[in-house]
Design a protein that fits this description.
single chain, alpha+beta, 4-stranded antiparallel beta sheet, 14 helices, about 40% helix, elongated, membrane
């Protein structure tokens, strides 16, 4: 194709415009990525996740490419030399391919976040496989340098690459982008995943890859159509536009999806002492300060989050409410021990009902006064005209007109909890816990020598969690394998819950194995498994910083529910919260559905109070087991497993102070 004698005014203006807008856009993206970091601190860079660091490298190399090639294009002297042509070709090829390689590393990091299963990068087969796929990029760079074109035409540089090199680069870039994006997106778009946030991430990844590929293909075909030779303004300008658009869409795809104003979607949180210093005395006062019926106020609470592999979360997650909500009353010191009756009836889920009955229909505490084991009812009013955003209606009647649920409990009443410690003497520690009809057995082995030496950590113990579900445990009557996605997510949640609680630094070069067996399911399986794992770890003598007490909570209309059954769990937006009662911290919050911010705050505080109640029962069972063990050691016998009155029956309320 014939080349123009001189560059046109349109070409020069478009070229300088592309470079100025490109540098401005890339600088803005870098500033937004670093606005929450102290960039002059070495600790910031050492603690920064590799995915965020890789994204910054993509933006920086793009910015550097724009700067250097801009100087080559518009620097003095106006007449070009052969040296400038050679430098332009070499800089364009090297910086372009380096930026592409960093983009591939970002894609590989996202693939590892989905397929790594919590393993380190070099221990993950899929991560190593993806890195092997990047090795041919070096050969492609060598081919492009060997087939580079650069010569002078009427005092101006003509640069480019031959057809063979351009076709090889284009084919490799398209194939690798599509393959890595498919590996990342495929597990996230399955119909079994209900999280809108994960699906939004998958859609953004597909859109970013599509946009980047379209721009790269257009740039490649323009170069191919011009015979592999372009004026330096056209070649460097086209590469600059290609890199800027790819870097910007990569930045956009790796940002966390925007949360709507009227909903909240949580990831694992950690609630600091400052946010909840005195929950037992000030919970009602804080809610009264944040919510009043007189006028709307703005309430906010900040919760630091654990850094995840997916670098879409900031260091602090702030939930802001601009709607008035009434206060939640703190439960009074009331105790009762009603008679527990098991009934077999027509329950919507087909399971056994668990009712708490007392003689003559009235329960009496030890001092003879009337007692009630439920928390005070929530006196919540509608604060939105359009209540459909949070007041979700159930398909079945969850609470009748009398304020009772399908199994006979009140809204904030917990199911009966049964605890049995050391049911399996062959394990280092074991526990069987039942919340109503949900029964989970946990066995702990360790600390012991790791079976896989490659996974051993020299400074701390490795926690392994394995989940198995009995085929008869649910109405599905289905056997789930160990590699089932739901089972793996279940195990990852339990492992993430206990990693900050178990003092793993006391057991270097060892592993702690937690085997969870679900025997019966009627809602609250995760909370039961966490409570049972806590007691099993205590039974094994493993050092913990605190008890871990978990409870599920939900909201129907303006009423909060605790300790959900299977029907309630599948019908209502709910969360599972694991709290450390003594240190006043939260180690896990999981929620797969969206919930209005005000309702989230209410059931969050309600679940915190339920955690304190469960803590008393679990501590009583552990102390009883310890007492029997000490007694058996004194008498030279074997301590029987703990299963008595103190470990069964309805949960008691107590005076938190």
């Amino acid at each position: 194709m014939a080349l123009a004698a001189e560059p046109s005014a349109v070409m020069l203006n478009l070229s300088i415009l592309a470079f100025l807008l490109g540098i401005t856009t890339v600088t803005w993206c870098m500033t937004c990525s670093l606005q929450e970091h102290q960039i002059w601190s070495s600790k910031t860079w050492s603690n920064m996740p590799w995915s965020r660091l890789c994204l910054l490298l993509v933006l920086f190399t793009t910015w550097l490419n724009l700067l250097l090639t801009g100087v080559l294009l518009f620097g003095a002297p106006p007449r070009h030399t052969q040296m400038r042509c050679t430098l332009g070709t070499t800089a364009c090829i090297l910086l372009y391919c380096i930026t592409k390689g960093l983009i591939y590393l970002c894609l590989v990091e996202r693939v590892h976040a989905v397929w790594g299963d919590g393993r380190r990068r070099w221990h993950s087969p899929i991560y190593r496989f993806c890195l092997v796929l990047m090795i041919p990029l070096g050969a492609v760079v060598g081919l492009m340098l060997a087939q580079g074109v650069h010569y002078l035409h009427n005092g101006y540089c003509v640069i480019g690459i031959k057809h063979t090199a351009s076709l090889v680069l284009l084919s490799y870039d398209i194939a690798l982008n599509i393959f890595l994006t498919f590996l990342f997106v495929a597990p996230l778009v399955r119909s079994t995943i209900r999280s809108a946030r994960l699906k939004a991430i998958a859609h953004k990844a597909m859109a970013a890859t599509s946009i980047g590929l379209v721009i790269t293909i257009v740039n490649g075909f323009v170069l191919y159509g011009l015979g592999g030779e372009e004026l330096i303004w056209t070649c460097l300008g086209g590469c600059a536009v290609d890199l800027v658009i790819n870097a910007v869409v990569m930045y956009w795809a790796m940002q966390s999806p925007a949360r709507t104003k009227g909903s909240v979607h949580v990831s694992p949180l950690s609630l600091t002492n400052g946010a909840r210093d005195q929950p037992r005395k000030d919970a009602g006062e804080n809610a009264a300060v944040c919510g009043t019926r007189v006028k709307p106020t703005v309430c906010s609470f900040a919760m630091p989050t654990y850094e995840q592999q997916e670098d879409g979360l900031s260091n602090r997650t702030t939930v802001i409410s601009a709607v008035s909500v009434p206060a939640i009353d703190v439960p009074q010191p009331i105790i009762r021990k009603p008679r527990h009756v098991d009934l077999y009836g027509s329950h919507p889920s087909g399971s056994r009902l668990s009712l708490s009955l007392s003689a003559k229909g009235v329960s009496r505490s030890e001092n003879g006064e009337e007692a009630d084991i439920s928390l005070h009812e929530l006196g919540l009013a509608r604060t939105h005209d359009d209540s459909g955003t949070y007041e979700l209606k159930s398909r079945v009647e969850i609470i009748n007109d009398g304020g009772y649920r399908a199994d006979g409990r009140k809204a904030q009443e917990l199911r009966s909890i049964t605890i049995e410690l050391s049911p399996h003497p062959t394990a280092d520690g074991s526990a069987t816990v039942s919340h109503g009809l949900t029964t989970v057995n946990v066995c702990v082995f360790g600390p012991r020598e790791a079976k896989n030496r490659s996974q051993t950590m020299h400074d701390k113990a490795l926690i392994n969690v394995e989940i198995s579900e009995a085929a008869f445990s649910s109405s599905e009557r289905r056997k789930r394998g160990r590699n089932d996605k739901r089972i793996l997510e279940f195990a990852a949640s339990i492992r993430a819950t206990f990693e900050p609680v178990v003092q793993v630094s006391l057991y270097p070069r060892s592993e702690i194995d937690i085997f969870v067996q679900v025997l019966q399911q009627d809602g609250g399986v995760l909370q039961t498994a966490i409570n049972a794992a806590t007691l099993a770890l205590i039974d094994a003598g493993i050092a913990l910083t605190d008890y871990v007490c978990a409870c599920t909570a939900a909201c129907i209309d303006t009423t909060g529910l605790l300790d959900l059954t299977n029907t309630e769990e599948s019908d209502l937006p709910n969360l599972t919260l694991a709290v450390l009662p003594r240190s006043k911290r939260v180690t896990l919050v999981t929620m797969e559905t969206r919930l209005h911010v005000e309702r989230f705050e209410q059931i969050f505080k309600l679940a915190l109070l339920a955690g304190d109640v469960l803590h008393e029962r679990m501590r009583a069972a552990a102390r009883e087991r310890t007492g029997k063990l000490v007694q058996s050691m004194t008498l030279g016998g074997i301590a029987p497993p703990v299963e008595g009155k103190e470990a069964a029956g309805d949960v008691e309320m107590y005076n938190p102070s």
